[in-house]
Amino acid sequence: MNFASDNAGGVHPRIMAALAAANEGHVPSYGEDSITRAAQDRLRELFDAPQAAVHFVATGTAANALSLSLLAPGWGKVFCHADAHVQTSETGAPEFMTGGAKLVPVPGAGGKITPETLAEALVVHGRDSVHAGRNAALTLTNATEWGTVYTPAEVEALAAVARDAGLGLHMDGARFANALAGLDVAPADLTWRAGVDILSLGGTKNGCMAVEAVVIFDPAKSEEFQFRRKRAGALLSKHRFLAAQVLAWLEGDLWLQLARHANAMAHELALGLARLPGVRIDQRVESNAVFATIPADLHRRAGASGICYHLWPHTQQPAEDEPVGIRLVCGWDTRLEDVTATLRALA
User: Fold this and answer.
1) Are 96 and 65 in contact (CB under 8 A)?
2) How many structural domains does the chain have?
3) Taking CA 122 as the corner, what is the angle to CA 121 and CA 123, rounded to the nearest 5 degrees?
4) Are 134 and 77 in contact (CB under 8 A)?
5) What is the pLDDT averaged over residues 320-330?
6) Which segments within 49-188 are labelled E, that is strand?
7) What CATH number has the domain bearing residue 62?
8) What percent of the chain clears pLDDT 70, i.e. is strictly above it?
9) Which residues belong to any copy of the Aromatic amino acid beta-eliminating lyase/threonine aldolase domain (predicted)?
10) Do 216 and 328 belong together in one domain?
């Protein structure tokens, strides 16, 4: 009963089969193969963006850091939510890959930046000068670290503020499929039509082994990305094994089916937890994560029952009898039986 992370799950059988099929024979390396070209074309078609540049990397950190390096020089400022993965969990990779750009954390309830909080941050931190640096980029996480989801209208409103301030717009889509499945909108509506310049599209958390697609809606930046990816050591020679995952993931809308399932399991888990005495659901469930505060005795019972989750925030050190904040994440392979068994053990 593991709800620690959607990284903890395995690889979907169809994707594993695609990897085995791609293992046959010899093909050109470094992305010059037909499987990579097919995966790139499929993503262009999916996003209704025939001119977009599409490149693959193996990790979300590489996707985010390299994407931001296209938008921000070393003297630039990148505005992000205070809880964003780029701010809390990437060990300075964005700063490193940009050559020193400064991340400017922006507060916001539920992991979301609003046009108002962004505008306020621009007033406080956004002065362009040789002393303060240059406004360069805004990065949004969708779905957010709090499991909330930006709608197309919300992205568009933030893009308007960013554009007026001269900021490029990047979207960290490590859980983009979960956001899309929750909204039931077209991929283009949540990205370039709403003003997104670059998307880091995550597959690893949603049934793939290890692949993220960087979708650059301005193809003029494609060559620079390729040089940066190589210099960063993030260009895989056996590139077909990245692309094969993407093709299988997208085939028959598997990626959305898996995301819908993960989201549904999170809703079931939250409904059951809310019925337990002393439990408070802290955030409306909009994707595949549940955030709750539970009594200390329930926390101890969960540990004794082998139920895995993370404390949220990670830094909390509650006293023995104090309530505990937790995060539970459902994945593509979370079973309803796991949810039911968890709730039964806690009850």
Assistant:
1) yes
2) 2
3) 90
4) yes
5) 94
6) 53-57, 76-81, 102-106, 134-141, 168-173
7) 3.40.640.10
8) 100
9) 3-293
10) no
As a whole number of Å, the CA-based R_g of the chain is: 20
3-state secondary structure of 88: helix
Residue type, 186: A
Q: Which among 235, 253, 271 is the end of a domain?
A: 253
> For 253-270, what is each residue's pLDDT tens digit?
999 999 999 999 999 999
Say which residue the tokens 């209704």 belong to. Answer: 48
> Which CATH number is 272's domain given?
3.90.1150.10
CB 103 within 8 A of CB 78: yes
Same domain, 245 and 286: no
Domain that holds residue 306: 255-346
**Mean pLDDT confidence for 327-343:** 97
In whole angstroms, give the CA distance from residue 331 to residue 265. 8
Looking at the structure, tell me whether residues 217 and 340 fall in a common domain: no
* Number of neighbours of residue 230 by Cβ within 10 angstroms: 11
Comparing C-alpha atoms, which of 185, 184, 157, 155 is closest to residue 170? 155
